[in-house]
């Protein structure tokens, strides 16, 4: 996206308050809704869903159990939200921009800018974080301000970077990532290693911006963050798909395959492979050799693609 386009989206949508609630495997219910939207129908037989493209998602225990309660074996759009689990984790969503044309740092496919959707922790989590970790700085020990995270009111769990082609009706998801959960686990592991030699060691001896004691840090990382760790990636993907479909009005979504994404974005190191293999398969993305039109029409991206042997992407119609 060009910088002007990102600014335009932020001017229109950036200040809206968005609440997003998620439970493990909620995305399966939303994929049923997307399928109904694609087929332009208000309801579907459960038996048809089981033999269709969503057969894998319907095998999830939370989904299979919920669909048993559908009258006459038919599920409607109105039914779907009533079938949700009660174990919901709330997030707030916010938007920002990323990139200024430095491909080596920005890791953007078109060497332009991205729109970023941020998933932020709720107030209950933030209160526990302050109580247990006791961060001694506005920028806490688990966040990186060099990445597209909130710096003022909220604490960002994860983010989704997107390149949008309004003229081609496409979105390319460039990256889904979090610092918080990974850095929290690494921090606790380092403190535990230090305590092997010095059992009385406090977290603040290794990390100056943590004033909480070891037991409280351990409780926060191993208990408070445990529910988020199980679902952050799928929650991030679904939040992005809902935003793309409901607010941008775009119906075709692409996502990078592992090797193609690394080469095209000039990624140093190796991102988690599961984010570019297991996650898109969960959501029913299909592999394609045909590049997104927004890349095929870009001279810089087209040149980069030619240098990649057998490039692939994932594609999903929503």
Helix content: 40-55%
Largest sheet: 8 strands, mixed
Q: Tell me the structural class.
A: alpha+beta
Instruction: Assign an overall shape.
Output: globular
Q: How many H/I helical runs?
A: 15
Give the CA-CA distance, first to last residue.
21 Å
Which regions have little confidence, pLDDT < 50, spanning 5+ residues?
A: none
Number of domains: 2
Kindly estimate the percentage of residues that lie in beta strands according to DSSP: 15-25%
**Order of strands across the biggest sheet?**
1-4-5-6-7-8-10-9
Number of strands: 10
Strand/helix succession: HEHEHHEHEHEHEEHHHHEHHEHHE
Radius of gyration, taken over Cα atoms and rounded to an integer in Å: 21 Å
Overall mean confidence score, pLDDT: 94
Give me some keywords for this one.
318 residues, alpha+beta, 2 domains, two-stranded antiparallel sheet, 19% strand
Written overview of the protein:
- By secondary structure, the protein is of the alpha+beta class.
- The chain has 2 domains: 3-21 and 87-317, no CATH class; 26-82, no CATH class.
- It is built from 15 helices and 10 strands.
- It has helices spanning 3-13, 26-39, 46-50, 61-67, 77-82, 103-106, 123-132, 180-197, 203-206, 214-224, 226-247, 258-265, 278-282, 293-296, 299-306; strands at residues 18-22, 43-45, 74-76, 89-98, 114-120, 156-165, 170-177, 252-256, 286-288, 313-317.
- It has an 8-stranded mixed sheet with strand order 1-4-5-6-7-8-10-9. It has a two-stranded antiparallel sheet with strand order 2-3.
- A hairpin with a 4-residue loop joins strand 6 (156-165) and strand 7.
- Helix 7 packs antiparallel against helix 10 and helix 8 (180-197) runs antiparallel to helix 10.
- The chain is globular.
- The model has no long low-confidence stretch (mean pLDDT 94).
